[in-house]
Design brief:
The structure holds 2 protein chains of 2 kinds.
Chain A: E1 3-7, E2 10-14, E3 19-26, E4 32-38, E5 44-50, E6 56-58, E7 64-68, E8 73-78, E9 87-94, E10 103-104, E11 108-113
Parallel strand pairs in A: 2-11
Antiparallel strand pairs in A: 1-3, 3-8, 4-5, 4-9, 6-7, 7-8, 9-10, 9-11
Chain B: E1 5-7, E2 10-13, E3 19-24, E4 31-37, E5 44-50, E6 53-57, E7 64-68, E8 74-78, E9 87-94, E10 104-105, E11 109-113
Parallel strand pairs in B: 2-11
Antiparallel strand pairs in B: 1-3, 3-8, 4-5, 4-9, 5-6, 7-8, 9-10, 9-11
Classes of the chains: A mainly beta, B mainly beta.
Chain lengths: 114, 114
């Protein structure tokens, strides 16, 4: 079975500071990993995904994530936070035999202070 | 290009009633997945439809059922509503049922069961 754990249900940073949102996964087969963002009263928007190949993945809005198999992690980072980054972030996992079923973590709410 | 749309936006029902939620997939997409997002939780996979056939189901009871139509729009039906069914229901469409195809999410339907 696959699972996702997001460390920290709430993260607060100052504008311009580094954003680091943590995600650890469990999977017995090679995982496909995703980060989604959810703004209030909206659906989820894909930030980035890892399937195969390069382990450092760049996404939209300046976000990137690195797949580390040895640490079973897929942490999301952004060098400099903007006020507009305040939202809920979800890490999700699937694999080649899941037919598109995404398993999500509990989510991390990011607050950005001026 | 029109994105994924869902109706209604909000819905209030009483325990024991039945509800139907609707989803229009993005143009060119033949796969629709439904997720339940309880307050403060990550989305949980309910089921997926591919070309009008169910293509995978999560851990939800049979009173959760669905349909996909020839135009690839979809319905989620829930019978005998329970208080715990109160949640945001998200529909996501993708261009195919591939496990790493991006799923495009709609804004959701907020269901409240009293």
């Amino acid at each position: 079975a696959q699972s996702v754990t997001q460390l920290g249900s709430h993260v607060s940073v100052s504008e311009g500071a580094l954003v680091l949102l943590r995600c650890n996964y469990s999977s017995s087969v090679p995982p496909y990993l995703f980060w989604y963002v959810q703004y209030p009263n909206q659906g989820l928007q894909l930030l980035l995904k890892y399937t195969t190949g390069a382990t450092l993945v760049k996404g939209i809005n300046g976000f990137e994530a690195e797949f580390k198999k040895s640490e079973t992690s897929f942490h999301l980072t952004k060098p400099s936070a903007h006020m507009s980054d305040a939202a809920e972030y979800f890490c999700a996992v699937t694999n080649y035999n899941q037919g598109g079923k995404l398993i999500f973590g509990q989510g991390t709410e990011l607050s950005v202070k001026p | 290009e029109t994105g994924v749309t869902q109706s209604p936006t909000h819905l209030i029902k009483t325990r024991g009633q039945q509800v139907t939620l609707r989803c229009s997939s993005q143009s060119g997409h033949n796969t629709v997945s439904w997720y339940q997002q309880a307050l403060g939780q990550g989305p949980q996979f309910i089921f997926q439809y591919y070309r009008e056939e169910e293509n995978g189901r999560g851990n939800f009871p049979p009173r959760f059922s669905g349909l996909q139509f020839p135009n690839y729009s979809s319905e989620l039906n829930v019978n005998a509503l329970e208080l715990d069914d109160s949640a945001l229901y998200l529909c996501a469409s993708s261009p195919d049922r591939g496990q790493y195809n991006e799923q495009f999410f709609g804004p959701g339907t907020r269901l409240t069961v009293l």
